[in-house]
Input
Amino acid sequence: MTKLHVKMTVNGKPVEALAEPRQLLIHFLREDLRLTGAHIGCETSHCGACTVDLDGKSVKACTIFVGQAQGSDITTIEGIANADGTMHVLQEMFREHHGLQCGYCTPGMITRAHRLLQENPSPTEAEVRMGIAGNLCRCTGYQNIVKSIMAAASHLNAAREAAE
Amino acid sequence: MIPSSFDYHRPATLGDVATILRDHGDTARVMAGGHSLIPLMKLRMTAIDHLIDLQDIAELRGVTLEGDAIVLGAMTTQHDLIENALLRQHMPILREAALQIADPQVRYMGTVGGNVANGDPGNDMPGLMQCLDASFRLVGPDGARDVPARAYYLSAYETTRADDEVLAQIRIPTLAAGTGYAYEKQKRKIGDYATAAAAVLLRREGGVCTSASIAMTNLGDTPRFAADAATALTGTPLDEAALCAAVDAMQTVIDPNRDNRGPIDFKRHVAGTILRRAIARAASRAA
Output
């Protein structure tokens, strides 16, 4: 089988590698690029632990072959923090509101919430719950995750207003 | 879970797809969003030597209004169906149904073409397309042909599409002004297939139902178009007698299996409840 010469942008940096076509994007990110933030949970596109941002879409990297991501712009949890290394407000709010317990789902939750708030900067609680419906958490009961995302939305909107 | 090895193809035109399919025969498969096919490959329930990714083919994209038809490119994603302004205006039932499919991440990748083409009886779009009297444009080596959604499905994963044909477009007749619509789905949890689902269109004049269309999902090895159920509503004020007659007629065309979503009697019960809810919501929207 012919290996693919894949090129993509990951967290703002150009990446090039040879990859087997059957390699899944999550394995490419974790094993070849050593970006182990996105997790492998169910491996059946249910749990969302492997969520990354691909060309402005939240996707489950366990259900995408590396070739499908050829030429794309990918953001993983490692690319969410602010440029100066401080935590993104979503990360801050997850800490402040106890939006995680074991932390396994957290990279997927935050990466998904990051896209959700770009599409809908002022979501209702129901919209947040529908927006993270593809991410499973077996610890928190979701209450504090929803709280964290709502709080992050408020902070981001306040910062946006202040800047205007 | 790692699938068996394959060669990856990413052609730019349907002509190039035809060439790859001709060269490799049934060892090649086309893939849209991949969210049905990739899980099967990972479980090694299917092995493919030549995987043809359709994402670069511009001919398979776009949502347009052409005369009295909405035309969906096969690669239109479920997310597009939810966000598209033209569809919100002309065909809001697509948005209502798409919001009940899978979850946000899957909807960014999953396409309407993939959903209707592969013949999975659990998919929601096939029944909806039968209700809407859509047709599927299949492009093969000898040109294009249109197959009505109501004639496309033969049995589970078996359709009238030939191995060397690609589903390129879905054409849906626009709805008359004032048509009521509903897509109602009972599922155990987010991301699940339907225990039962119903697509309903109907029109009313002076309180009397003048026309209707009904199709049911995941209650047989194919979607079930329930023509007699729709007839049972026509000419009635949609009263209790008409609803009972429609549900009875619907029960004669479905054929649910016992599985982890419940025994047969339960599924028939849910099918009746779901159809009643769908008719009520469609009626409330009919002008």
